[in-house]
Amino acid sequence: MIDAPAAEVTPARPTTPAPPRPTRLRALDGLRLVAALMVAAYHYGGRDGEVADAWGTSPSLQFPTLHGWFAYGCLGVQVFFVISGFVICMSGWGRTLTSFFASRAARLLPAYWAAVVLVTAVFALPVVAYRAVSPSDALLNLTMLQQPLGADRVLGVCWTLWAEIRFYALFALCVVLPGASRRRIILFCAAWTLAAALAQGAGEPLLDLVLMPEYAPFFIGGVGLYLVHRDRRDAYAWGIVAVSWLIGQHHAVARLWHAPDVDAFSYRSSLGIVLVVTCGFLAVAAIALGWLARADWRWLTVAGALTYPFYLVHEHLGWVVIEALHQGLGLPSSVTALLTVAAMLLLARLLDRYVEEWATPLLRRTLSGRTSRRPRAALN
Q1: Residues 259, 267: Cα–Cα separation, whole Å
Q2: 330 and 21 in contact (C-beta within 8 Å)?
Q3: Which of 67, 102, 169, 184 meets the CB 3.0–4.6 Å disulfide criterion with 63?
Q4: Residue 53 CB burial class (10 angstroms; 0-12, 13-18, ≥19)
Q5: What pLDDT does 370 receive?
Q6: Taken in order 145, 213, 312, 127, is the CA torsion positive or negative?
Q7: What's the whole-number mean pLDDT along residues 182-204?
Q8: 24 - beta bridge partners?
Q9: Tell me: the pLDDT tens digits for 137-183?
């Protein structure tokens, strides 16, 4: 999903005083990595398609027991969206529009550009069985606009970034531009919830594209949970969260549930889908309420830094690693899956170290018109 920016508190101008908070919510970093690993489990063992070519057979045969559980991993995207709503509200409160734009562009683009170039280059190798996109489509992918323009995607997961970008645009225009306040954010959440429901009822493609009825409840729920983080007694905030959860679980079930079918790869029960969505909301709520404040370990910050590059590269490059380890070296399925995840985390660390650590602050300073340097931790 999907981007979920690093979890830290940005100075805000609250309408009511908020109690002191930790400067970084490390548990949120850890939750981001959990969501990314859920998606990886889905892509490696919870679905059919091109990953079956990497395994040589369907993942349902490679993981006869676990593939049914792995199928729920796709809901990691919805968890990402809840986290994103929380963090975008947190980081956007008190920013100017220029600062907000610079922050989001600098957070998303460097690792994304590197991942597009890397996957395109690897897929172009003669020894790799997967087809690379055309040079024209690969160049268009650098804009992040390939999906609305109908081009082939270099990264399969980039559809979630397109949803994130639309959320950023709505939040920037409706909240950041006029100036964030509790009242304005509550109105934004209420208006978006109602407009998304009307858009789905109208069946108008343009409204669906802008308002994202299927994913709006998760972003809105995350925004509501940030208001809870500021004031746990805020009844309006809890109302936003409750309504978002009710609508969100409905959309998740409608999209991901199907009747039991022997010909289908997997069967997710409606109860299972609701439980995973609920756990995602509850996990972010626990962080918002400070119940996980003791989870303040520094390695969680590292985990958070690895999440975005891991998410970008794990699917397509994971196919290549799976084929090399399982079909090439004959390693068992479980060992192959674990080594593939480890390899993608190592690659994510390299992208973080050699791309993001210098490119993110540089791009941020360039876009915001500043030349002074600040520690990287303050730039995410």
Answers
A1: 7
A2: no
A3: 67
A4: middle
A5: 66
A6: negative
A7: 95
A8: 8
A9: 999 999 999 999 999 999 999 999 999 999 999 999 999 999 999 99
